[in-house]
Backbone:
């Protein structure tokens, strides 16, 4: 029996025993029970922040994010994953990348090389490889030639439906990024990516 139940039961007994004293009313239950219930609520998971200077060259972004992850105690290979992931990957830590006021929310996944990234959500049947240059994001298939720009201005029921079955590998290796592109520009583009795929995976390598 909980504290509140005991208090309510005790008040009922007092009222029954003093039924002849019409002017006496039962005492209200102690407010301490309310505060105890509030304190017993499950706290929200901590969200780790990986802040970078948005003016920093994008070619240094991967190393900078890997350094921030190590500062949080995440050692070894790690990936940043974002998009529609319910539940999050086992062992993942809620995290967000911040650059010039732009926030990219997702999860840090330690030992990501051991995770089958295509199985993080149901109904995934395809993968695209995503890169970035000064014009924006582009995508290509691992087994197909060429690549094409991702046009975020074109959105329809078909693109949303198809995107539910696709996940993306995002490369921010220095050789895949143009000089002159800033980290803030990359993060702003990556924030849009879940409108085209179910979720995206970005390896953070120092």
Residues:
């Amino acid at each position: 029996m909980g504290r509140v139940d005991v208090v309510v039961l005790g008040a009922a007994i007092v009222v029954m025993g003093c039924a002849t004293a019409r002017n006496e009313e039962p005492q209200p239950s102690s407010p301490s029970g309310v505060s105890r219930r509030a304190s017993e609520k499950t706290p929200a998971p901590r969200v780790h922040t990986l802040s970078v200077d948005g003016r920093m060259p994008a070619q240094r972004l991967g190393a900078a994010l890997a350094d921030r992850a190590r500062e949080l105690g995440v050692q070894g290979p790690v990936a940043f994953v974002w998009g529609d992931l319910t539940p999050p990957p086992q062992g993942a830590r809620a995290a967000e990348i911040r650059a010039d006021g732009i926030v990219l929310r997702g999860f840090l996944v330690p030992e990501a090389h051991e995770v089958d990234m295509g199985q993080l959500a149901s109904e995934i049947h395809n993968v695209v490889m995503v890169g970035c240059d000064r014009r924006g994001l582009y995508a290509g298939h691992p087994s197909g030639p060429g690549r094409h720009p991702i046009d975020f201005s074109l959105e329809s029921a078909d693109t949303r439906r198809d995107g539910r079955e696709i996940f993306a590998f995002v490369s921010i290796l220095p050789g895949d990024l143009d000089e002159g592109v800033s980290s803030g520009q990359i993060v702003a583009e990556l924030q849009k990516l879940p409108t085209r795929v179910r979720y995206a995976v970005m390896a953070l390598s120092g």
Q: What stands out?
A: The longest strand covers residues 102-110. The longest helix spans residues 3-17. DSSP finds five helices and nine strands in the chain.
